[in-house]
Structures are given as C-alpha cells and as structure tokens.
Amino acid sequence: MKKSIVLRYAVLASLVLGIGPTASAAYTPSLAAAVASSGTVKATATQSTQKTDTTTTAKTDTKATVSPTKAAEEEVARIAAKNKNVATEKAKAAAKALPFSDIDGHWGQEAILYLHKEGVLNGYTDGTFRPNEAVTTNEFTNIFAKSLDIAKKRLAKADKKDAAKGKHITATAASITDGLITDEKADGISRQKFAIAAARYADALGITNIHGKKAVAFKDTDEFGASGLKAATQLAQEGYISEGADVSFRPHDFITRAEAASILYRIDTGKNINAKSATPAPTVTAVADTKDADTILRKEAAEEGINNDAVATSAEAQDTLVDAAFKELNRLYKTPGNMQNHGVMYWKDNVLHIALKSQDDLDKLNARIEKLAADGKPFLKNGVITEPTRYSQAEYDRITANFERYYAQRQPEGKVVSAYPDVAHNQLIVNIDKDFPYMNDSIKTAFGNKVRVFLLSPTTDTTSAKTADKAGNSSTAEAAPAKEDA
Q1: What is the reported pTM?
Q2: Burial zone of 353 (CB within 10 Å; 0-12 exposed, 13-18 middle, 19+ buried)
Q3: Is 457 left (phi over 0), alpha (psi -120 to 50) or beta?
Q4: Is 109 left (phi over 0), alpha (psi -120 to 50) or beta?
Q5: Which residues are 287's β-sheet partners?
Q6: CB under 8 Å to 307, separation ≥6 — which residues?
Q7: Of all helices (H) and strands (E), which one includes residue 354?
Q8: Could you give the CA distance from residue 216 to residue 232 in angstroms, rounded to a whole number?
Q9: How many CB atoms lie within 10 A of CB 207?
Q10: Which end of the chain lies in a sparser environment, N or C, as judged by fewer CB atoms within 10 Å?
Q11: Residue 306 and residue 137: Cα distance in Å, rounded?
Q12: Radius of gyration (C-alpha) of the chain in whole angstroms
C-alpha cells in the first residue's frame, strides 16, 4: 500500500513550538513533493534547533532510495512539477466552488456564506465580495431590512407550530437605522453606529440580556459616544463582539462588510464568542530572532500544559512509526495522500502527532490503535499522539498562500521567513522580517485569530514595534471568532 503525506509545510509544521534560526535551510521541497505524489521514493527532511532535532519523514512500501544521479534528479523534478499542478488544480476547484473569488480562507468566510445564503448580503458583478471594504449607507439600510424580513418569516413559521407564542416583530429597517445616517454620501458607516443598529436589531428579536448585565470594558472607551458605548456594551454582554481592557473597538472607523456579516451571523445563530475568556496573544510580537519566538511559544505551551516527552529519537524508530501511521491512515481514508484534506501529521520534539478534523475519524483511529495494542502491537499507542485540529494541511496551505499575497501587497520589500501550523492553538505561525503601518490591526481585520505573526529584527521607520505594544491585542468586532468557527 502506498504511503503519502503532504510535506509542503511538514518540516515547518514539525517545528511547532520548536522553531530555530535556520528554519527553512534544510528542507528540500521538490524531493518532499515527489514523495507525496508518487509514493515511490523514500525521503527524510531534517530540521535542527538549538534545543531539539525535529524530523519529518515520508516513506512507502518499497525500499528504493533517491540516488544522486542525474536521472533520479530529473525524475524527482518531474514528479514535483506534477504534484504542484495537481495541488494547483485542487485549489482552483475549491475556490471555484465558492460564490465569491475573494473569501477563500478569509476569517469571515462562514459568516459571509451564511448571510449570502439568507439573501442579506450579495457580492459584486466581478464575482468578488470585497470583505474588507466598508459597508455603504445604502447597504446599511438594506442589510437590516432583509434581516428583519427573514427574522419575521422565521418567527411566523415557529408561531404556526405553536399558536400560543403569538410573538411579533414590530421594528422596521427605518426604526433600526433611525438617526444613524447623517450623510448619505459618506464612504461608510462607523463601527459604533453599526453597533447601535445591531443592538436595536437584537432588541427587536428579543435576545437582549440573555447572558445578564456583566461588566464590560474597552481599551478606547473614552472615544465612544454615549449611545455607541451603550450599544457596544450590550453586544459584548451577549458575546456578539469581543471586549476587554486590552481590546480596542475603534468606534469611529468604518465597519467592513465582513465585520457586519460576522455580528449579524452571531446574532442570528446565537454563536457566542465568549470574548472574555483568556486574553488572546497579540497578533504581532516583535522579537530579535526565531529563537526568541521559539521561547515565547514554548513558554505559552508549557503554561497551558502542552508539553510532551520524546518517544522516538532514532531515525529508524521514526521511519517505522511513520510506516505504521500511514498504514492506518490509508485504511481510514482509502486513498493515499487523502489525509491532507482531513488533518495534519507532524513531528514535534521527536513525537509524531496525528491531528484530524473529524471527531468520528479520531475515534476510529484511536479504536484501531487500541485494538492493535490489545493484539500485542502497542507501537502506535506508545509512540503517537492523536489530537483534534480545526484546519487540515490543505487549509493551512491556503491560509499561508492568502497571507503571503496579503503581506506582499502591504510590504513589497518584506519577506515571509517561515510559516507553519501551530495545531494546538489552531493558528498559522508566521515569521516576517519587515513591518508596515497599522500592521497589528490590519492583520487582525484580515485574518482574525487564524494567524500569529512574529516580526524579526523590527525596523524603526514604521510603527509595528510600538503598535505591537500599544495596540497589542487590538481587536475588532470580528477579532475573536466563535470557538467552533474557522
């Protein structure tokens, strides 16, 4: 049976909570791609840090080894190119399946798709949604007109089943937006004005004070108007927006289409973001080098109890462990290489981790591992850690590609030094070498909590080092997605 794993970021993934200053130097993408697509060669890519050696291995049933001959090199290049083409076509197919060309991997994708399906928000004639553009004054009224209409139909349907309810929604779009559109030619609607309308909408639906009048704080409380602060407080109490002494609401900034969709999505579905749980880490953290970033990630992991002892240190033991893992994953997903769409496999501190999106798949894999152990084959049980993950390797690849495009547009002179999944926290860890103005808030708006950025050797001509300190946890209405959201 062929064994396969997507290794485009596997070596970097193996450095989760264990990166080093030479994070990308030893990885051979073409060789790894050849292994991933053909299943006919054996390859080992090794990364070293000052603290630990991490190795990502892919292997098949055959024992053929890539030899340093021209013919072998040409074969590796051919297979790598073929694999890249297949991956590209798959990405194109996934993007084509979406109604808009610019939301794939966006933090607000789920909310946007929901509002689009409900007929509340549409895209543009060029096939885009433009999630980061401001809500116009015309859209502002239409959003609540359509949302109210849908809510009334939903309530009428429920009342039909239970005549005793007899509830009615008397609010109109005009009453919800009353007094908020002071300039119809304005470029957008401020975040606090949208908060006022959203709070009125929640009142109309009868879902106010469900969670009680708990204390709420914002970092920029003194920038609100009285009505805006009252509305934002109400929304935060219900968990529809994030709050906290270190959270900036930015009341006078224009609200974006994705942010508006996110708030309405949470109100309509009741998906509380539980924003006042643990204080989130800053989006951008300035560090001297990757060693400092490594120290920060390891410290955070230790504080959360995410720490494992090494169990397979020799190359031979790791090869055998990977073979056994591939055998069970291919049994589970039928097609070799299909795991990339269902989870992530990576090495961390000489421990092989298998992270799957589906709890049902995890249960099946764990049951199989237990059965093998009961039959006198405890190798996987003793050597593999299984865990859940929000994203698959294919999804991490898309997030990486989206971030690289985003960063190139905002800092053409900058470089993405490395990018790899932190599966334990469902984040993509990215190391960059140059900052740009308002970087922290910009990344939060574009990616929410999906991406954690470390700025290496920060420059002094822009604001990120100071911004990371001043606005470190600067959050927007979308900054803390619902726990089950992507």
Answers
A1: 0.46
A2: buried
A3: left
A4: alpha
A5: 456
A6: 301
A7: strand 351-356
A8: 9
A9: 15
A10: N
A11: 47
A12: 25
CA distance 209 to 221: 21
Sheet holding 284-287, edge to edge: 284-287, 451-456, 427-432, 416-422
d(CA 134, CA 146): 19
For residue 408 the two structure tokens come to: 């190139």
Residues 8 and 30: their CA atoms lie apart, in Å, by 9
Residue-level length of the chain: 486
Tokens of 65: 């080894």
164 burial class (0-12, 13-18, 19+ CB within 10 angstroms)? exposed
pLDDT in tens, the chain (486 residues): 433 333 333 333 333 333 333 333 322 232 233 223 233 223 333 333 333 333 333 343 444 444 456 666 676 677 666 665 655 555 555 545 789 988 887 888 889 999 999 999 999 999 999 998 999 999 999 999 999 998 888 877 765 555 445 467 888 989 999 999 988 777 899 999 999 999 999 999 888 777 677 788 898 899 999 999 999 999 998 888 888 887 889 999 999 999 999 999 999 888 776 533 344 567 888 888 888 887 888 777 766 666 544 445 577 778 888 888 888 988 888 776 778 888 988 887 678 889 998 888 888 999 999 999 899 988 888 888 888 888 888 889 999 999 999 999 999 999 999 998 888 788 899 999 999 988 888 888 788 888 999 999 765 444 443 443 333 333 333 333 322 233
Closest-CA residue to 479 (of 457, 460, 451): 451
Q: How many CB atoms lie within 10 A of CB 366?
A: 16
Q: In the chain, how many H helices and how many E strands? A: 16, 9
Question: Rounded to an integer, what distance in angstroms lies between the CA atom of residue 382 and that of residue 389?
Answer: 21
Query: Among 444, 460, 51, 404, which residue's Cα sits nearest to residue 286?
Result: 460
β pairing state of 284-287 and 451-456: parallel
What's the burial of 221, exposed, middle or buried (CB within 10 Å: 0-12/13-18/19+)? middle
> How far is Cα 438 from Cα 453, in angstroms, rounded to an integer?
14
Question: How far, in Å, CA of 313 to CA of 54, rounded?
Answer: 9
β partners of residue 44: 57
Helices (H), 26-136: 29-38, 70-96, 109-117
CA distances from 301 to 50, 177, 206, 308, 423 (A): 18, 46, 41, 10, 11
Torsion of the alpha carbons at 397, 402, 408 and 414, rounded to the nearest 10: -50
The residue to which tokens 């890539």 are assigned: 66
Question: From the centroid of its chain, how far is CA 222?
Answer: 32
Q: Please identify which residue in the block is written with the tokens 């929640």.
A: 202
Of the candidates 425, 473, 486, the residue with the CA atom closest to the CA atom of residue 276? 473
